[in-house]
Amino acid sequence: MTETKTDLKIPRPGTPVRGSKSGQPIMVLFDLIGRRWSMGILWNLSDGNRTFRDLQDRCGSASPSVLNTRLKELRAAGLIYNAEKGYALTEDGQQLFERLEPLGDWAAGWVEKLQ
User: Fold this and answer.
1) Which of 24, 25, 27, 41 shows its CA 20 to 30 Å from the CA of 13?
2) Which of 84, 88, 91 is CA-nearest to residue 50?
3) Angle, alpha carbons 18-21-22 (nearest 5°)
4) What percentage of the chain exceeds 90 in pLDDT?
């Protein structure tokens, strides 16, 4: 039996998610990318395709089952796809990364202020 997008428990707009009973789109996104290793996967795919083994090496403490689950969720959400050589960001995944990357820069400055 083939797994479909609806078989996975990915957050959906209009349904309750962590932090939002109404399922506002931004909260749905934060729920998805806030899951263990979701951001790590997106970050590691931002500069090119990666095989499962390569992602496993780069996400050192992620168990294979968690990594596999996140890959399935991110594929179902349309942010990554199975490429010829591993996994890659979709156009939406790349656009999301481009919007998240400045937050990484902001966070680096913020951490300096905290220290």
Assistant:
1) 41
2) 88
3) 120
4) 69
